[in-house]
Amino acid sequence: MLHPPVSAPSAVLTERAPAKVNLSLRVLGRRADGYHELASLVAFAGTADRLSLRPGDELSLSLTGPGAAGLEAGADNLVLRAARDLASRVPGLGLGSFTLDKRLPVAAGIGGGSADAAAALRLLARANGLALGDPRLMAAALVTGSDVPACLLGRACLMGGRGESLTPVALPRFGAVLVNPRVPVATSGVFRALALEPGTARASATPLPAFTSRAVTLSWLAAEPNDLEAPARALAPVLDEVEAALAATPAVRLARMSGSGATMFALYDDCRAAARAAKQVAAARPGWWVKSTVIG
User: Fold this and answer.
1) Which of 49, 85, 147, 227 is catalytic?
2) Taking the domain 13-168, which CATH number applies?
3) What dotted CATH number matches 174-295?
4) Lowest CB count within 10 Å: 3, 94, 151, 275, which one?
């Protein structure tokens, strides 16, 4: 049953869609159903897309912002796919017109499309008076994409399975720099390059410590790499240059690729160090997308 909507039907509702950063990503194997079994420590950055919804009878999507040129607003857009799937699960669900202000790069390994889809689900929940804990929201998220459940949760977590297992964790806050060389990398191509056959077991998950400090967190991350980084580097050799640029910044604590690439991140003790590092990288590589932010 739908509860009364939390706002008037004509009100425009807005949600942030923050970048998802895979601080670690282990590929534990490939299941018989073809999905890869993952263990990934996920956090969210301060930089984000913005999605708005004007509730109404018809479902539509328009695009704006600097990243809009790299997207299509057609039926396959994850925002619309998430909305349609939720509508199939919730009789009488009110829909409406979405507007996506696209700020994050596309096909970049920071879950931009997944975060947008999760924001769409949160907006539809608000417009229709659905509780965010309604299991139909999470079910629609998982059908839309493996990263969408974590983005719907919207807080640091250990993501397991193909994305359906989420264990919230408390992480210390880091200053961070995100860098994308404006080279899109298809997730499917990276997993193909990994070349795991269905039914293959590769590793087991490492137990999580209590992340009581930055030092503990960095020590654990040092032993938990991103298993997709090697195949992504083979497809996008420019990642070597991105890593070198981040490694050359003062006070950097860790530099690594997020997701399936080609965005890399670097961690710092505070946002001031991150801001200085971002300025250095952006000055040397003005054609890259460079953002100073916080992660936690």
Assistant:
1) 147
2) 3.30.230.10
3) 3.30.70.890
4) 3
